[in-house]
C-alpha cells in the first residue's frame, strides 16, 4: 500500500485558459476528508465544477476538476492538500472525526494593528493581502476616528506557522504598507496570549430581529437572491440500489462552495461517503450521486434520521449563509452569519467577499466586528458591519443585501 509522498496529491494544470485543472488525491480515508479538501480548495479561490470520490473504507481516490484564479498558487495548494490527508500509516483502519479526540494544538494568535488615513476599499485591500499571505482572520475590530483615520485590529493566525519569525512579520508589514500607500501608516504585529484573544470577542449582544429571522431553521418562501426557492433543490434517498449504502441524489442550483457545504454537513453528521459523483450542468444546475453510510457502517434506514439529514442538506444548499441589513436608529448595519463546523472551522473568505461586495457597491465601512455566537444548538460566525452613510446612504439597503448575498454565493 506504499505510495510516494508527492503522489498523494497530483495537480494537472489546465493547458488552455478556461479549461479545468484536475486535482487527484490518493490516500488513506477518514470521515470528513472530502470536507477538509473542499474547504482548502475554496480558501484558494477555486470552484469545483466536477468531482469523483471512491473508497473501500480504508483507502480513497478523489478527483476534482477546478476552475478559478489564473495565478493560483498550485504548489502551495498541493502542500496544503497533502497536509490534510491522513498519513499512510493510518490506512490500517478508517478514522472517524470526533471533536473530543486528540484535539489539535490551537495555533498562536497574533494581533495586527494599524492606523492610517481612511479611503474607499481600504478594508478589502487589507483583507486581500492577508488572504494571499495565508493569514486567517479570526476576529476584527475596525473603527474610524473623527479626523478621517482608521484604527484596525485583526486577530489572526498563520497557516504557515511562521509569523513568530522576523522575516515573516517584516514581509507581511511590507506588503500591507505597499497596498495601503500611506506615508503616515503605523503597523505592528505581536503575539497575544489566549486571555487577550478571548477578550477580543465581539459583543455578545445580538439583535432580536437577527436571532429570529437570520437563524430561523424554517425555510422562507424565497431566498435573498429572489431567484431561489425551496423547489429548486431536490433531495431523494434510496436504500434499494445498494446492499450496504444509502444513495442520496441531489439536484440544485450551483453556488460558491456548494460541494463544501454538502461535505461539511455530512462531516458534522459523521457520515462516510463510499462513492460520489458531482457535476455542473448548463444554466448553473448541479447533480450529485452519493453512496453513504453511518459511522457504524450501516445504511440510513430510520425515517427520522433520513428526514433530519435531508432537511439539513436542503437548508445548507438554500441558505449556506445568512445576510440581512437592519437599521440602528440613524445608522445602517450589515449582518452576515455562517455556520461553524463541529471541528471549529469557519467558512473561508467570507470577510473577503463582504468587503469586496461593499467596495463594488459603494458604501464605506465605519466599523466592523467578527465574533462567534451559539444560537440554538449551532455555533455561528457573525460579521457585523456598520456602514458609513455620510450625508445619507446612496445605495438602497435591499440592493446592499442582495449584492453581498450574490458575491458570497459566487453569482457576481
Automatic annotation (TrEMBL):
Keywords: Repeat
Domain (ACT): residue spans on this chain: 111-194
Stored SUPFAM superfamilies: ACT-like (SSF55021)
Superkingdom field: Eukaryota
Pfam families assigned to the protein according to its UniProt record, in alphabetical order: ACR10_N, ACT, ACT_ACR9_3rd, ACT_ACR9_C
GO molecular function, one term: amino acid binding
Protein purpose: Binds amino acids.
Protein name: ACT domain-containing protein ACR
